Automatic annotation (TrEMBL):
<dbReference type="GO" id="GO:1990362">
    <property type="term" value="F:butanol dehydrogenase (NAD+) activity"/>
</dbReference>
<keyword id="KW-0560">Oxidoreductase</keyword>
<dbReference type="GO" id="GO:1990002">
    <property type="term" value="F:methylglyoxal reductase (NADPH) (acetol producing) activity"/>
</dbReference>
<dbReference type="InterPro" id="IPR056798">
    <property type="entry name" value="ADH_Fe_C"/>
</dbReference>
<feature type="domain" description="Alcohol dehydrogenase iron-type/glycerol dehydrogenase GldA">
    <location>
        <begin position="10"/>
        <end position="172"/>
    </location>
</feature>
<dbReference type="InterPro" id="IPR018211">
    <property type="entry name" value="ADH_Fe_CS"/>
</dbReference>
<dbReference type="Pfam" id="PF25137">
    <property type="entry name" value="ADH_Fe_C"/>
</dbReference>
<dbReference type="GO" id="GO:0046872">
    <property type="term" value="F:metal ion binding"/>
</dbReference>
<dbReference type="Pfam" id="PF00465">
    <property type="entry name" value="Fe-ADH"/>
</dbReference>
<protein>
    <submittedName>
        <fullName>Putative iron-containing alcohol dehydrogenase</fullName>
    </submittedName>
</protein>
<comment type="similarity">
    <text>Belongs to the iron-containing alcohol dehydrogenase family.</text>
</comment>
<feature type="domain" description="Fe-containing alcohol dehydrogenase-like C-terminal">
    <location>
        <begin position="184"/>
        <end position="367"/>
    </location>
</feature>
<dbReference type="GO" id="GO:0008106">
    <property type="term" value="F:alcohol dehydrogenase (NADP+) activity"/>
</dbReference>
<dbReference type="GO" id="GO:0005829">
    <property type="term" value="C:cytosol"/>
</dbReference>
<dbReference type="InterPro" id="IPR044731">
    <property type="entry name" value="BDH-like"/>
</dbReference>
<dbReference type="InterPro" id="IPR001670">
    <property type="entry name" value="ADH_Fe/GldA"/>
</dbReference>
Length: 382
């Protein structure tokens, strides 16, 4: 196991009715700006619960944060904050709303051009405090320090301890009305988050490996159940907690991490508007095929522990393991190849050009995936 420092300060309120807990978590004298997306929270009862919890606070709302939150939209919220004096943010929604609110929190206190935070990795020295009410388990953004923002054809990450949510409400009951597509996307997003930290090479981190394998197996077991029985609250609870633990820093502590799938996937979203999770399901199998030698030990380990694959030579077992992962993606109704998203090999050159523009030339756990390697991965993904 490698050396690491781990700290996660987000307070988690988990379970039905926990939205009420925000009353005490947000200072009574705070001027709160509630951020959310397209308005589904007004249909599923979440907005009313938030409004009730904030009835003794001074608050206003900012709506319209998109999936893959857009810089121009978020800057409208920054202007609102600066003109009206809000000093606390409450994100109510899925990972895109939380990511966008993290950026708003930093941009509202940033002295220069806020896009520098994403484009040049400018240091975030101050940020408004924020909490969140999660409505879609997927990204883990509710208890980590990162986010991803889109501007034009640029989809870029940023991060700082200063934008980690102070608290997060996780009520699985609010996920029961989610559309099937969003449920599937959330499961796949969490699954690949875990894989980016697990499917690398061994460093004798047995605790992290077992945590990761348990989360992966939970998602593979519960994900299809959520599609087949949308009203099973216990299933939703397990998925919600697994998605948070997938990216709160715990399983990634002391182990090598990959993230090539995410960086390549971001370009698919930026250029073709494909759902983030579906870009991951398209790219990840190709990454495994391309890196089958460098990921050999972990592929064999996962195949044995998750699927009971022990027969045959190493190559056969690796092929079977990748095939089982693809089967899971298909069971969740997401694509596992570019062709399944109506894209051909003609899409590859512009994707590689975007990777070059964003200086994504040293990807993967060994930083050995350059632009030629990314092209080869995309060719395997066709």
């Amino acid at each position: 196991m490698n050396r690491f420092t781990f700290q996660n300060t987000t307070r988690i309120h988990f379970g039905e009715g926990q939205i009420a807990a925000i009353t005490k978590d947000i200072p009574a004298d705070a001027r709160v700006l509630v951020t959310y997306g397209g308005g589904s929270i007004k249909k599923n009862g979440v907005y009313d619960q938030v409004a009730d919890a904030l009835k003794d606070h001074t608050w206003a709302e900012f709506s319209g944060i998109e999936p893959n939150p857009k810089y121009d939209t978020l800057m409208k919220a920054v202007t609102m904050i600066q003109e009206e004096g809000y000093d606390y943010l409450l994100a109510v929604g899925g990972g895109s709303v939380v990511d966008g609110t993290k950026f708003i929190a930093a941009a509202a206190e940033f002295a220069g051009d806020p896009w520098d935070i994403c484009q040049f990795g400018a240091t975030i020295e101050r940020a408004l405090p924020l909490g969140c009410v999660l409505t879609l388990p997927a990204t883990g953004s509710e208890s980590n320090t990162g986010g991803v923002i889109t501007r034009g054809t640029d989809k870029l990450p940023f991060g700082s301890e200063l934008v980690r949510p102070i608290f997060a409400v996780l009520d699985p009951a609010v996920t029961l009305t989610l559309p099937e597509r969003q449920v599937a996307n959330g499961v796949i997003d969490a699954f690949v988050h875990i894989m980016e930290q697990y499917m690398t090479y061994p460093v004798n981190a047995k605790v992290q490996d077992r945590f990761a394998e348990g989360l992966l197996m939970t998602l593979m077991e519960e994900g299809p159940k959520a599609l087949n029985d949308p009203k099973d609250l216990d299933v939703r609870a397990n998925i919600m907690w697994a998605a948070t633990l997938a990216l709160n820093g715990l399983i990634g502590a002391g182990v090598p991490q990959d993230w090539a799938t995410h960086m390549i996937g971001h370009e698919l979203t930026a250029l073709h508007g494909i759902d983030h999770a579906r870009t991951l399901s398209i790219v990840f199998p190709a990454v495994l095929k391309f890196q089958r030698d460098s990921k050999k030990d972990k592929l064999l380990q996962f195949g044995e522990r998750a699927f009971g694959i022990t027969e045959g030579d190493d190559n056969t077992r690796i092929d079977q393991t990748i095939a089982r992962i693809v089967d899971f993606f298909h069971e969740m109704g997401v694509p596992a190849a570019l062709s399944e998203a109506d894209l051909t090999a003609d899409a590859i050159d512009p994707l590689v050009d975007n990777l070059k523009a964003h200086k994504m030339g040293k990807l993967g756990e060994h930083r050995a995936i350059g632009f030629d390697e990314s092209r080869a991965i995309l060719e395997l993904a066709v």
